[in-house]
């Protein structure tokens, strides 16, 4: 993306990217070897363009995929927490810790990273310290010239062997110390200076009267130019995230921030995809006016990641972007933002229509439907999946906080391909393949069932970064859902209805630790149930089971690898209208229906019965319609052999 620009009277602009830089390393021996850890990825330079324009002031409890119920015992939870933090062990005492000081990162090429090179340095030490043993360091703190970190006492001898090694082009020195570990939020002199300059930029660009944050044409901003923050696409995107973060810190509460920033201009920033500035959607979700004029947004897909974000957006400006030339431009954009009333200065929806559109997109409590029906009229599954995969790709802690609680259960299963152990390494320490582990008596089966939002979020944190396709690409997804009865009602009164959702798809994967990039297929099963009072949503995830499948390396410049789908074994009926009750059909009538469907379709008796007894619920017309829709996917065995 290029630098952003602002509303009337604009200013400067720029953009963000969600990829972390790595650091270079080399062993200090006869000849120095250096890898890429810590190097800053440089992209095309960002340039400003036209003057800015902007908007006019306006429980389960359970095993695997089980049903809701009370939380598990404290002994299991504490063991899970310990295993998750230490990656090993079946109980026992916590390893003794010691403090290490590491000198040298300030002189490395990684010092220009957003975190000062700390993350890359710690990953380097964990990889290089001991080839035969997993080394896990605590969270590092950059204080002055040193990186401070906690380590297991037993690992110190292995770590000290790295004294004199080169990290990102600079030698490092490691020492054990008894000095007190730095506490509180500290900034190096350079970091504090950068922060003050960003505050000066925000002070210049924030209009309190209009509640406008003008981030237009950031690539031409003198402050960012002097900081060297817009010299490449990668730096520009990191700088944008830093600006948004610092801006948010100036408000004590989320409500103050919501009231304080109601308009943002990102005009004239050469933005080609909103993914470059995606952090805006989560930092300011209640934005009312947004200016994206005079950028490089050429297609709907370049904006699609913000679909169903900014649900309270009332004004949007996209003039000066190639996408505005599309025939159905206004209709498509209006559908994506339910409260949108003004697009490029034109009225597209009345306030009353906006209120109705917002209500239609708001998740509703799960309908009390018979178990043979699917999603009903509330569109719960579609809304949930869109939110889930966007948050999983961009903000996993927020995802866990929104849809999981203390009774949520999650597990992961993976079966590595022969000869590809490295590609599967991040998943194997959590894999709960019961058949491979040897049955439910193996302690690992219990330890790898994660209960509670905090443990689930911790497990997710160590998995590789992902990017899922949007649900607007149906050829890349297989999704099925039906109601799931007899869940424990969180209010304590009887039973409640839930939803089971089964998803098969693919995602792009970036394992920055091993520098592996590819595409992976997956299956995921959810059970949703009613939330407890006061929860962020009317429903929660009771069970989440993720199965990891084939990994394919991504060739340079290659397009995404398409998912190979498997045809269902029997026809699946379309979503049926809500009915008052499940019909009662005697055995003789069932036989007649099976025979008639077999005669009309040519299917054998077994598949005819499967088609009728599934979600069609012995409705002959629905079963026949399902057959016509799924005929091409049925295997030869489904049909009667010719005489």
Estimate the global geometry from the Cα principal axes.
Answer: globular
The value of Rg in angstroms is 28 Å
Q: Can you tell me the residue ranges where pLDDT is under 50 for at least 5 consecutive residues?
A: 3-93, 367-374, 437-441, 558-583
User: Per DSSP, what share of the residues sits in E-state strands of 2 or more residues?
Assistant: 15-25%
Number of helices: 19
Could you estimate the helical fraction of the residues in percent? Answer: 25-40%
Largest sheet: 7 strands, mixed
Number of strand elements: 21
Describe the protein's architecture and organization.
The longest helix is centred in the first third of the chain and has 17 residues, at 189-205. The strands form 4 sheets. The protein has a 7-stranded mixed beta sheet. Mean pLDDT is 75; it is low at 3-93, 367-374, 437-441 and 558-583. With 643 residues, the protein is α+β, with helices and mostly antiparallel strands. It contains 19 helices and 21 strands.
Short characterization:
By secondary structure, the chain is of the alpha+beta class. Helices cover 29% and strands 18% of the residues.
């Amino acid at each position: 993306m290029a630098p952003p620009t602002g509303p009337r009277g604009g200013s400067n602009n720029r953009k963000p990217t969600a990829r972390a830089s790595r650091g270079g390393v080399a062993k200090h021996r006869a000849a120095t070897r250096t890898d890429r850890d810590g190097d800053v990825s440089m992209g095309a330079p960002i340039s400003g363009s036209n003057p800015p324009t902007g908007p006019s002031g306006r429980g389960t409890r359970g095993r695997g995929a089980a049903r809701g119920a009370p939380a598990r015992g404290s002994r299991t939870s504490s063991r899970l927490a310990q295993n998750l933090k230490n990656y090993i062990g079946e109980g026992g005492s916590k390893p003794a810790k010691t403090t290490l000081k590491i000198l040298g990162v300030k002189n490395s090429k990684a010092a220009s990273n957003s975190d000062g090179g700390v993350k890359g340095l710690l990953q380097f030490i964990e990889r290089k310290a001991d080839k035969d043993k997993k080394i896990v360091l605590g969270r590092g703190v950059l204080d002055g010239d040193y990186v401070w970190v906690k380590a297991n006492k037993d690992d110190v001898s292995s770590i000290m062997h790295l004294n004199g090694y080169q990290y990102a082009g600079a030698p490092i020195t490691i020492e054990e110390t008894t000095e007190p570990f730095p506490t509180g939020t500290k900034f190096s002199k350079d970091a504090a200076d950068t922060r003050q300059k960003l505050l000066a930029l925000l002070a210049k660009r924030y209009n309190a009267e209009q509640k406008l944050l003008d981030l237009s044409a950031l690539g031409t901003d003198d402050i960012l130019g002097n900081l060297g923050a817009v010299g490449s696409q990668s730096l520009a995107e990191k700088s944008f995230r830093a600006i948004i973060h610092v801006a948010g810190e100036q408000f004590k509460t989320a409500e103050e921030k919501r009231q304080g920033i109601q308009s943002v201009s990102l005009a004239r920033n050469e933005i080609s995809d909103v993914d470059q500035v995606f952090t805006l959607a989560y930092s300011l979700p209640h934005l009312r006016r947004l200016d994206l004029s005079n950028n490089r947004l050429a297609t709907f897909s370049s904006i699609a990641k913000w679909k169903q974000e900014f649900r309270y957006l009332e004004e949007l400006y996209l003039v000066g972007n190639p996408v505005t030339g599309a025939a159905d431009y206004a209709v498509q954009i209006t559908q994506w933002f339910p409260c949108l009333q003004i697009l490029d200065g034109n009225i597209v929806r009345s306030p009353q229509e906006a209120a109705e559109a917002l209500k239609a997109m708001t998740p509703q409590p799960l309908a009390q439907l018979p178990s043979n029906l699917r999603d009903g009229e509330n569109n719960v599954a579609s809304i949930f999946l869109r939110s889930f995969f966007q948050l999983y790709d961009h903000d996993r802690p927020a995802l866990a906080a929104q849809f999981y609680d203390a009774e949520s259960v999650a597990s992961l299963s993976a079966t590595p391909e022969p000869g590809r152990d490295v590609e599967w390494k991040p998943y194997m320490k959590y894999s709960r393949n019961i058949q491979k582990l040897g049955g439910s008596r193996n302690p690992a089966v219990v330890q790898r069932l994660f209960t509670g939002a905090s443990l689930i979020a911790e497990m997710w944190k160590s998995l590789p970064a992902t990017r899922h396709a949007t649900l607007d690409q149906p050829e890349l997804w297989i999704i099925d859902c039906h109601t799931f009865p007899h869940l424990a009602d969180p209010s304590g009164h009887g039973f409640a209805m839930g939803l089971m959702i089964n998803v098969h798809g693919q995602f792009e994967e970036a394992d920055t630790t091993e520098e592996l990039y590819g595409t992976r297929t997956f299956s995921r099963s959810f059970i949703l149930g009613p939330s407890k009072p006061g929860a962020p949503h009317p429903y929660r995830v009771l069970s989440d089971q993720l199965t990891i499948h084939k990994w394919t390396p991504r060739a340079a410049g290659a397009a995404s690898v398409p998912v190979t789908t498997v045809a269902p074994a029997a026809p699946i009926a379309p979503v049926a209208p809500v009915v008052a009750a499940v019909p009662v059909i005697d055995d003789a009538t069932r036989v007649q229906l099976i025979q008639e469907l077999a005669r009309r379709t040519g299917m054998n008796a077994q598949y005819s019965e499967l088609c009728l007894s599934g979600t069609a619920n012995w409705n002959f017309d629905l079963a026949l319609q399902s057959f016509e829709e799924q005929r091409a996917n049925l295997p030869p065995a489904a049909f009667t052999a010719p005489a």
